[in-house]
């Protein structure tokens, strides 16, 4: 078996709450292999999204170790984490999180620019065409529907060709048809670029498309099952 | 529409407290406070002037004459009317101090007084001896500045004209000093009878006599004035009384107050931009509530009314805070104000100016909130289900546009009415509206340019710059409100900077280049040849101009009292110089009519200064009656000529044919244009040979004027700084309001790989761009305003002054940069996961 591309070793996450510290994740140990599609499922508040955020270095583990591509994310400072994401990761959120003052094209080009790609805008345009938004490049987020915004977000995550794609309930804010289209795009992008995909979802049909599904409950791994063999 | 329901909704919405309204409150409170404070200070000074009117004037009433003492008949009338009468002689002269070979000279304003002086108030001296003792024999007192300049201490001797006097004390307080108006030289007090041997009050010499009257209790001033005017106005006698003891000062305070209120209104306009932005932001956050209310059946008007009541309540609070601050500030600053002013100040709460400020506050709040409030009608219930905010129309319904226009007109009208200088108020309002228009256009232009540049190929890869440009050009940015509010504040400062710099340059640099070195008065006719011989033989003298000079009061125009025809025009306000000349003096430009023929000795003819003639409505053929030395001379206006008063050369409003005036005792004046190094010797020679004449060094006079101008600019600068402070509050408000959006942007940017340096650079660039743009527009707006004021009000030339302009742009950029950076730390420190998940 290949070395894991993402690895969590006895990771805990404790956040300060109004009534004192709240332990969100308890001793999570989990490996993700390169090219794998991993689904994280579980009831609301089970810690799925927090786990995904730890994987992306967007949240810091209270204890334990998170490594990605052999790098210890827990030892990196904010800027090192940002650079690591820039070079290796793409993140998609439930609420899209596009920058409202930027057009679709500018939103997608930003991570490419940050990575120093001279052809950032050409690649961003290409990516937008891939997600079917070739005609909406100059539109601002508030001029687009939710489905369109999520497509821009997908294009933004995929454009730098990341090794790891993290998606946090990417269809949670979309209706059935739009949600299905987004998932097709997401899996299509993953297939085309060969990235590792970690997906948080509530939807059973989405989970069914993953190679492996990890079920979380109360901040712990409550079960795991392989759906498809990793390619 | 249901008012009770609207009130209930408003009351419930107000439970949210003041959150989100601090900038709104600060803008209104500051603007209202500034106007209330200025108005209160003006009222305090005017109250003091009124209360102390008799002391400032030196009597309950004053009758003054030029060139002569009162005739026995006139004096008898005064003695019969008043319980006591004091006679004052006022003129300019030179104090001469000889110490061996060294002779020092200083210009002074001499006041010859009698034993009754002062009728009211007290003269204070150092050492504190009684005035009678100080002025006994040939004793005199003078202001410290003059004594210091000449190195005199009490007990020293000096000369005035041809007589010797002794300085017995320093004059520290002259009760009627502020009422005398602007003097070029420091004051010297002396007994009038002691002047007899000085040769200074020869016929034709420029002097003024003032008769101060102490009137019986309850005397009817208006009736007395009418009686005095009816009997003596035609003899050149002028009446003033304690109802307005220091008219020059009152006029100055009034004008200055009006002007500062207008500057305050500009501040309120700047605040209005902040008020508008705050209401807009608040209502944007209320979209869901409004949509819900509509779903539940609320009419658009009910909702509008509910928010109008809510915003109105908050505006009332802001105005109330402003009024309290505006009323308290002058009281707290009373010791400082009293120390700065030569007049008594009656500091207390004045309801009038507070009411005026409150009215401005209400109108401004309405004007700037109606538009965003009207948008509540546009919110549809569908907003609950999908985002329709992008589809709201820019223009509200026509009725609101019309109401906004009407409110603006009302505000401008009220300002014009209250200021007492409607023309200035209207021009200022026009300036503010034009500047706002220009700034709004600039904001649109800036956004478009930024949007275009953000997509420019050459900026690709410069992420921070492109991000900043994208934010400036983007839809939900603070570009418009920052450019409008900060830009307007900076525009006013830029205009003041340009006007101040131009005036200073005109007075301190250009004027001395063209102006004469000395202005010599009181040259007796028999001394004229000697003076000219001395001067024309001096190689240091480049030019000498002389003219006979008399002074007279215009009493009638075409047989009607001059005041009725020309109102309060300066030409008829006091006595004016009159000259005579057989032929047009060299350089005279006669614009209309004809100069009298050589040797003309028919009925008197007059040539009048063209601009002044136009201002008071004179036409060729009109008859002007001038009282000179108590004698009326009526002349027909036969020509108009251009007179340039700005060169400080010889300029007379009125010139007459020689036969009309030659019989009257008179003196000559001269202007001497000389090399600076020759000036001292000229003064020494002339003053030694002709002790009675007075030479005024023009450069000293210019310095005095520049000094006064400096204080004016400082006062206006203080007023304008209130405007800028409001602008900065709006700026801070915009930065604070944008903090949430920036925290989000920072989180997203970090997620896609931006390091903190890049995010900070983006924030800093974005702020600086907005500030620099506001500053750049301010330079254009301020430059245009400066040009207009210099060209049309000051009638002078205008030259762009780059120093203050650069400071304005840098200041604007720095202010926004600092405000932006102050609100950048939280976005930079925020953890992306927390921020982004909180918005899920």
TrEMBL record, chain A:
Please tell me one Gene Ontology term that the record gives under cellular component.
plasma membrane
Per its UniProt record, what PROSITE patterns does this chain match? ABC_TRANSPORTER_1, ABC_TRANSPORTER_2
Look up keyword Transcription and say if it applies: no
State the Gene Ontology terms under molecular function. ATP binding; ATP hydrolysis activity; transmembrane transporter activity
What domain of life is recorded for the organism?
Answer: Bacteria
Keywords, in A-Z order: ATP-binding, Cell inner membrane, Cell membrane, Membrane, Nucleotide-binding, Transport
Q: Which residues form the ABC transporter domain?
A: 6-230
Annotated InterPro entries: AAA+_ATPase, ABC_transporter-like_ATP-bd, ABC_transporter-like_CS, ABC_transpr_LolD-like, MacB-like_ATP-bd, P-loop_NTPase
Question: Which family does the similarity line name?
Answer: Belongs to the ABC transporter superfamily. Macrolide exporter (TC 3.A.1.122) family.
Q: What is this protein called?
A: Putative ABC transport system ATP-binding protein
Q: Which organism is it from?
A: Rhodovulum marinum
From TrEMBL, chain B:
Domain (MacB-like periplasmic core) spans 26-229
Is the keyword Cell membrane assigned to this protein? yes
Name the UniProt key words of this record, in alphabetical order: Cell membrane, Membrane, Transmembrane, Transmembrane helix
Lipoprotein in keyword set: no
Q: Which top-rank group of organisms is this from? A: Bacteria
Annotated ABC3 transporter permease C-terminal domain residues: 263-375, 723-827
Q: How does it sit in the membrane?
A: Multi-pass membrane protein
**Which Gene Ontology cellular-component terms appear in the entry?**
plasma membrane
Spans through the membrane: 21-41, 259-283, 304-337, 357-374, 395-418, 424-446, 467-496, 715-738, 759-785, 805-825
Q: Where in the cell is it found?
A: Cell membrane
The protein in question is named: Putative ABC transport system permease protein
């Amino acid at each position: 078996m290949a070395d894991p591309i993402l690895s969590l070793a006895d990771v805990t996450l404790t956040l300060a709450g109004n009534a004192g510290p709240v332990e969100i994740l308890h001793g999570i140990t989990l490996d993700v292999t390169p090219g794998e599609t991993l689904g994280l499922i579980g009831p609301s508040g089970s810690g799925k999204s927090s786990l995904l955020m730890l994987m992306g270095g967007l949240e810091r583990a209270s204890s334990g170790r998170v490594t990605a591509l052999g790098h210890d994310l827990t030892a990196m400072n904010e800027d090192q984490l940002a650079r690591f994401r820039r070079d290796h990761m793409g993140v998609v959120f439930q609420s899209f999180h596009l920058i409202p003052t930027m057009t679709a094209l500018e939103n997608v080009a930003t991570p490419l620019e940050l990575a120093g790609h001279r052809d950032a805008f050409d690649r961003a345009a290409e990516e937008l065409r891939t997600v079917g938004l070739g005609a909406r490049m100059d539109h601002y987020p508030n001029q687009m529907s939710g489905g369109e915004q999520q497509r821009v977000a997908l294009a933004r995550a995929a454009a730098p060709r990341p090794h790891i794609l993290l998606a946090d309930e990417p269809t949670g804010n979309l209706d059935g048809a739009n949600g299905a289209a987004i998932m097709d795009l997401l899996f299509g992008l993953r297939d085309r670029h060969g990235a590792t995909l970690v997906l948080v979802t509530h939807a059973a049909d989405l989970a069914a498309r993953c190679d492996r599904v990890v079920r979380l409950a109360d901040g712990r791994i409550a079960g795991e099952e392989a759906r498809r063999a990793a390619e | 529409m249901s008012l009770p329901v609207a009130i209930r909704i408003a009351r419930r919405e107000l439970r949210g407290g003041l959150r989100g309204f601090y900038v709104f409150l600060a803008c209104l409170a500051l603007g209202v406070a500034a106007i209330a404070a200025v108005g209160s200070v003006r009222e305090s000074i005017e109250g003091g002037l009124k209360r102390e009117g008799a002391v400032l004037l030196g009597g309950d009433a004053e009758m003054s004459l030029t060139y002569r003492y009162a005739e026995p008949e006139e004096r008898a009338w005064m003695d019969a009317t008043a319980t006591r009468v004091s006679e004052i002689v006022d003129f300019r002269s030179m104090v001469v101090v000889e110490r061996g070979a060294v002779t020092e000279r200083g210009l002074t304003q001499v006041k010859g007084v009698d034993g009754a002086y002062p009728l009211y108030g007290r003269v204070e001296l150092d050492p504190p001896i009684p005035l009678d003792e100080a002025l006994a024999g040939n004793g005199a007192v003078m202001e410290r500045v003059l004594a210091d300049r000449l190195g005199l201490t009490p007990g020293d001797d000096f000369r005035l004209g041809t007589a010797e006097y002794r300085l017995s004390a320093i004059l520290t307080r002259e009760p009627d000093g502020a009422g005398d108006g602007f003097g070029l030289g420091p004051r010297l007090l002396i007994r009038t009878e002691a002047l007899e041997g000085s040769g200074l009050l020869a016929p034709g010499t420029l002097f003024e006599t003032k008769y101060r009257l102490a009137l019986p209790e309850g005397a009817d001033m208006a009736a007395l004035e009418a009686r005095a005017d009816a009997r003596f106005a035609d003899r050149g006698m002028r009446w003033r009384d304690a109802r307005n003891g220091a008219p020059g000062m009152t006029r100055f305070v009034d004008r200055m107050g009006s002007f500062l209120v207008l500057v305050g209104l500009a501040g309120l306009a700047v605040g209005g931009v902040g008020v508008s932005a705050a209401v807009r932001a608040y209502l944007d956050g209320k979209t869901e509530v409004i949509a819900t209310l509509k779903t539940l059946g609320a009419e658009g008007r009910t909702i509008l009314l509910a928010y109008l009541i809510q915003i109105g309540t908050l505006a009332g609070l802001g105005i109330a805070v402003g009024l309290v601050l505006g009323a308290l500030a002058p009281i707290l600053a009373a010791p400082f104000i009293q120390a700065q002013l030569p007049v008594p100040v009656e500091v207390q709460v004045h309801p009038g100016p507070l009411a005026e400020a409150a009215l401005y506050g209400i109108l401004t709040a309405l004007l700037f909130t109606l538009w965003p409030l009207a948008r509540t009608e546009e919110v549809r219930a569908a907003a609950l289900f999908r985002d329709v905010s992008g589809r709201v129309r820019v223009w509200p319904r026509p009725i609101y546009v019309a109401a906004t226009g009407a409110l603006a007109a009302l505000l401008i009208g009220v300002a014009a009415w209250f200021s007492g200088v409607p023309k200035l108020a209207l021009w200022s309002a026009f300036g503010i509206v034009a500047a706002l228009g220009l700034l709004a256009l600039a904001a649109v232009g800036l956004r478009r340019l930024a949007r275009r540049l953000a997509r420019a190929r050459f900026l690709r890869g410069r992420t921070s710059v492109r991000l900043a440009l994208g934010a400036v050009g983007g839809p939900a940015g603070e570009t418009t409100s920052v450019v409008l509010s900060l830009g307007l504040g900076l525009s006013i400062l830029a205009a003041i900077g340009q006007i101040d710099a131009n005036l200073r340059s005109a007075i301190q640099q250009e004027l001395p280049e063209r102006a004469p070195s000395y202005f010599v008065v009181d040259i007796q006719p028999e001394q004229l040849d000697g003076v000219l011989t001395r001067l024309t033989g001096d190689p240091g003298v480049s030019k000498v101009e002389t003219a006979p000079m008399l002074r007279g009061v215009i009493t009638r125009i075409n047989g009607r009292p001059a005041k009725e025809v020309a109102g309060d025009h300066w030409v008829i306000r006091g006595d004016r110089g009159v000259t005579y000349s057989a032929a047009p003096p060299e350089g005279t430009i006669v614009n209309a009519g004809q100069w009298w023929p050589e040797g003309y000795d028919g009925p008197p003819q007059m040539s009048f200064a063209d601009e002044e003639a136009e201002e008071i409505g004179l036409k060729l053929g009109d008859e002007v009656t001038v009282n000179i030395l108590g004698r009326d001379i009526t002349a027909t206006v036969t020509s108009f000529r251009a007179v340039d008063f700005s060169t400080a050369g010889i300029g007379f409003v009125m010139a007459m044919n020689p036969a009309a005036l030659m019989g009257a005792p008179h003196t000559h004046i001269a202007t001497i244009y000389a090399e600076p190094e020759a000036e001292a010797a000229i003064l020494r020679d002339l003053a030694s040979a002709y002790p009675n004449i007075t030479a005024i060094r023009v450069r000293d006079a210019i310095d005095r004027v520049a000094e006064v101008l400096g204080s004016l600019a400082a006062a206006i600068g203080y007023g304008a700084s209130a405007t800028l402070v409001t602008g900065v509050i709006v700026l801070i408000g915009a930065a604070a309001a944008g903090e949430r959006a920036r925290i989000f942007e920072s989180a997203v940017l970090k997620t896609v790989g931006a390091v903190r340096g890049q995010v900070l650079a983006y924030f800093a660039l974005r702020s600086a761009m907005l500030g620099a743009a506001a500053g750049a527009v301010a330079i254009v707006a301020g430059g245009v305003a400066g040009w207009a004021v210099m060209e049309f009000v000051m009638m002078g030339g205008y030259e762009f002054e780059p120093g203050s302009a650069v400071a304005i742009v840098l200041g604007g950029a720095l202010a926004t940069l600092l405000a932006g950076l102050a609100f950048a730390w939280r976005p930079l420190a925020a953890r992306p996961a927390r921020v982004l998940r909180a918005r899920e």
